[in-house]
UniProtKB/TrEMBL annotation, chains A, B:
Organism taxonomic ancestry: Bacteria, Pseudomonadati, Pseudomonadota, Betaproteobacteria, Burkholderiales
EC class name: ligase
GO terms of biological process kind: prolyl-tRNA aminoacylation
Species: Paraburkholderia tropica
Domain Aminoacyl-transfer RNA synthetases class-II family profile: start-end pairs: 33-473
Pfam families reported for this sequence: HGTP_anticodon, tRNA-synt_2b, tRNA_edit
EC number: 6.1.1.15
Keyword Protein biosynthesis applies: yes
Protein name (record): Proline--tRNA ligase
Domain notes: Consists of three domains: the N-terminal catalytic domain, the editing domain and the C-terminal anticodon-binding domain.
Keywords of this entry: Aminoacyl-tRNA synthetase, ATP-binding, Cytoplasm, Ligase, Nucleotide-binding, Protein biosynthesis
Assembly behavior: Homodimer.
Record-level Gene Ontology MF annotations: aminoacyl-tRNA deacylase activity; ATP binding; proline-tRNA ligase activity
Signal peptide: none
Amino acid sequence: MKASRFFIGTLKEAPADAEIVSHKLMVRAGMIRRVAGGIYNYLPIGLRSIRKVEQIVREEMNRAGAIELLMPAVQPAELWQESGRWEQYGPELLRFKDRKQSDFVMGPTHEEVVTDIARNQIKSYRQLPVNFYQVQTKFRDEIRPRFGVMRGREFIMKDAYSFDKDVDGLKLSYQKMYDAYVRIFTRLGLDFRAVVADNGSIGGSGSHEFHVIAETGEDDIAYCPSSEFAANVEATDALPLIATRGAASEALTKTSTPGAAKCEAVAELLGIPLERTIKSIVLATDNEGAEPTEPTIWLLMLRGDHSLNEIKVGKLEGLKGFRFATEAEIVEWFGTPPGYLGPLNTKKPVKVVADSTVANMSDFVVGSNEVDFHTTGVNWGRDLPEPVVADIRNVQKGDPSPDGKGVLDICRGIEVGHVFQLGTKYSEAMSATYLAENGKPAPMQMGCYGIGITRILGAAIEQNFDDKGIIWPESIAPFQVVVCPMGLDRSELVREHAERVYNELVAAGVDVILDDRGERPGVMFADWELIGVPHRLVIGDRGLKDGKIEYQGRRDTEATLLPAEEAAQTVAQKIAAALAV
Amino acid sequence: MKASRFFIGTLKEAPADAEIVSHKLMVRAGMIRRVAGGIYNYLPIGLRSIRKVEQIVREEMNRAGAIELLMPAVQPAELWQESGRWEQYGPELLRFKDRKQSDFVMGPTHEEVVTDIARNQIKSYRQLPVNFYQVQTKFRDEIRPRFGVMRGREFIMKDAYSFDKDVDGLKLSYQKMYDAYVRIFTRLGLDFRAVVADNGSIGGSGSHEFHVIAETGEDDIAYCPSSEFAANVEATDALPLIATRGAASEALTKTSTPGAAKCEAVAELLGIPLERTIKSIVLATDNEGAEPTEPTIWLLMLRGDHSLNEIKVGKLEGLKGFRFATEAEIVEWFGTPPGYLGPLNTKKPVKVVADSTVANMSDFVVGSNEVDFHTTGVNWGRDLPEPVVADIRNVQKGDPSPDGKGVLDICRGIEVGHVFQLGTKYSEAMSATYLAENGKPAPMQMGCYGIGITRILGAAIEQNFDDKGIIWPESIAPFQVVVCPMGLDRSELVREHAERVYNELVAAGVDVILDDRGERPGVMFADWELIGVPHRLVIGDRGLKDGKIEYQGRRDTEATLLPAEEAAQTVAQKIAAALAV
């Protein structure tokens, strides 16, 4: 490609609505332009990277035996009524009427449509397994679209749906997709991690998220550097940090702790480690019945340095649908407002749940249910009845890995892919059955597998940028090399070498752009650094008189000189090496 | 591709709602499946052909210097309000509200969005010309979606938009697109014609439609086999068929023509050629004003074998917005109901317009304004005042070509492409200006250029089918060759040769499918003939014992035997020859 025949729309300034670096850089690099909230034009440079992501995804999906088709963006409400999601799905599901007042939705996902295909097309076990995928434009009416392509409303996804005879087949299909995703993100050149995920609203059991690791990620991931373990922090089991409870050695003592409403302040005031203090969290569950009754009040006890995992709590017996207690309830049950709460001497009975670490603590510190007072030397059995014990906290750095193979670390990630075992949720709701070997109809076992194509661009940038702009991996850079001639209009020698190098790179299958716009070097360099082209060749009379062309990798701090005749080949080799996975 | 890893969903019967052959065959071949009215799933076989059309379109658009980008399906109402089309566009424009009650549309076309891009991105004449295109999914809320992909609601289009400094630039950009379209449809292997079009609601001046020629086409095209002339019948000038009016030779005679209310019946009854009779058509125009007044009644006179061209009539002075007269009006003005109308002795004055052929007729026959009577020997000047003369008829086969280079023929076509000179319609409405060389802002001159990607599939089938199914051109066939092994499970020899031939074809870059499903020959052949694969190789023990493989082209009535070792090469050469344009 020659720049004079291309469209380059770089900007000096990012728009005011761009909060994160990838959004800013994508607008500045001329990749996207806002049309409405969460709706973008993909300008030529942006589209080139999208197409490269799509191509890699397609190649790996095909390699894994998935078959491409294309489903519509506009879907009839009937299918969503059949699955039950017409009612269940929130306002993110854009519902509208056509000119005949029939109900439709803009598809945010395609479980219903693909299940309809399967039930119509698949009659016999002989047709299974099958895995259909598409690369398609979706719409999700986010209440607060932002972060550019990271949380847009209209976006491009690859979604795949597998159909199997039985759970064993589903597990095999799932594993194939898992393996394909590993290859995809590896080929994309991204630092990523497959993590065990807690299942969302889509239902079913067994799922992994694929995260691009980036400091700016919105999800916390727990992983074990010495093993394969990785999971969303929310979904990671927290093991007890104390193997056996120690014997009580201190007397129960009410201690003045003026103004120390937080564990950190208590520890400092008393000169003890934070790990000796207890955080008290008060929850409520409302009891159903004809007559209004009092709620049940729960006291959840965590070690002072730990944080509550609400998802784990919601799965405990009696705590499904819990809420945080109101201040009035706290005063009524504990006799004091929040800040100095504890399990001792409550005004009305509360149900105590101790985190599995807390359950093995001894001589610990709790609030006295009196403003400005804590009680030290508290011990289970002696001062308090044995509690209900459960894992109710988030893991943190340094915790033992649940697989027993080391110690956890925490990183932040951006979810770019998700593989799900759906089971028969949709096939049962929509009667997608096949005739099994035994001649009887059975519901198909389904899996679904998504990759956010446009989101990947944002995630790749969040992981790879500097103060000059984007730093693309070779696999998805809009161009892999830029050839920048110095004084193209003055020097016949420069023109000749630029054309030669350009043609050699094209012949080598390299995606190269020749910047023949006639811009000043400073403008050229700034544009291509902003756009993030990973390799740059600068061709000028000064170098050429010594037979040299200047090369600089986007991450290099300095340029190096290459023999002019070898420049194209050298760069082509660098790219081939980067793409080899 | 091996059929066992692919999805083939052929059907014996077409669905009841399929009216035309392409719709029936696309469903039966497993290319499309209905999701809702005018909304389809593109199954794997259908998607393959779509992608091939897209690829050819992209290559030729890129070759012509157009730059690909991607605009959203969902567009904010504001842009359509700016252009004025929010009000002007009919209910085909699907309007809806998002969760925040903001107005949006599902884009049926992208003039507004691309003009918004241009006004934001293009500041100077130095950035012009530029031509942006996309391949994108559109939605048009047709009141009566039907004919499968021919008149769907959700469909894939390539739309391009050129921006130029001035009209000369626009004409150049237009010509480049015209030439690109000729290359595209030639490469697609379709019999097509570029025709001069009457402009539709999109506005501007200067446009051509590209039609695929097919008997089932919905548009009538007039063309001159001995010249380049081609135009929609509606837009073709009808030259007078009589150069000079002959002298009157008959006396004006009222003649009994009982029951002969049509010209054909009159001609037969009187034993004269149809070309001597006159068809009288009564139109009305309503006069505006504060007081309701009588309409103006018009009598349009056509030769008995000619048909009225309403578009031409609507452009005549005084006839803009005409309507057909009511029967009551006809009785009031002519003294008789329709059937025996004529210009002589009307009860109230009417405005007479004679077609340019009628104006040169002599001794002709008109209705007498009395049931069961006609008047023969009618002559202008002698019996009637000289009329207003205009071209008000459709051309027909045998008419002189407007370019003076021969005689017209008529064929039917399916519109698959359209090139338009928009001028400044959108750039003025939306203030898309650039700074010209003289330092002053000027509106950009725009052109727009569409190709119906999914529609092309239907049109190609309407042009290429037989009673067995589709007959694809090599360029867009879902597969170019099918290899059908006979008894794959029984014969190691067949298996070896099938694999060898398959691998040789793959190596030659041929898009081949090996039917390894283990179906009976009859089922295999019927499937691939229905799907329309243009080349078939049948590999069986019987042929192999003589060193032969059976070849049959999809249009061949019989198979021929090829030397087994040369079969792949021979077919690859046939395909290469077919694709060479």
